[in-house]
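We treat protein structure as text, and this decision shapes the records that our systems exchange. Because each token names a local backbone shape, the row as a whole describes the fold. For reference, a complete record is included directly beneath this paragraph.
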Amino acid sequence: MVEAIVLAGSLNDKGLREVSGEAYEALVTVGGKPMIEYVLAALENSPSISRIILVGPRELEKIPVSKPITRVENTITMMENLRLGLKHVGKEDYVLLASSDIPLLTAEAVEDFLARSRKREGDLFYSVVEKGVNEKYFPGMQRTYVKLRDGTFTGGNLFYFYPGIADTAWSFAEEMVNLRKEPVKMCARLGFFFTLRLLLGHLSIDDLERRVRKLIGIDCRAVISPHPEVGIDIDKPEDHRLVQRILLERVV
């Protein structure tokens, strides 16, 4: 069994302000419900999840959750909210981390990601989705992609990691989070020649994993998910419109 941390403390002060006046992104309604409800439902229906640690505003207390849950009031930044969540888990077991803005997430996608991660050795597992899979299931959804020798991928919003690595990797992880929408700058942090090889499409997943291990001393593994829902986050009005249509079609 796995404990899951859900980060739901992002202020609604960017693109989604156009579609909702809610103070927090997690409470923005899509398909008739706040985004966070879909994520919590996926985790509740996942047999591997034992407890949910929800880091967010007090307004989330009105959302019922059937599984054991620890509610933690959020602070300002994503990384500080993660730190708050980690205070409520043990350092001896792996933990799942999810964002609150992936309303298409399903229990099947969660279980598949956990199963694929557990088959490998590593400290941190990061979900990625191949471009062709994403466009097959969700045509028209705009994502940031990186072309590698293994294929063209977009990042997901599920992580599975050993909490004990936090102290070692914290500053690097914080920098990567700040650059998460700018893959070229992320690779520049890994070195000039990595950026050049990225632009030429010469990098592989193994190359990136080895480089991270050399820089910060942890084994970081990319897990290719066949479930594009893990990478469909809502942070722009056009994302909201497309996901709203998809959710309403599921009801019909």
In short: Strands lie at 2-7, 29-30, 33-34, 49-56, 69-73, 95-99, 124-130, 146-148, 151-161, 220-224. The first strand starts at residue 2 and ends at 7.
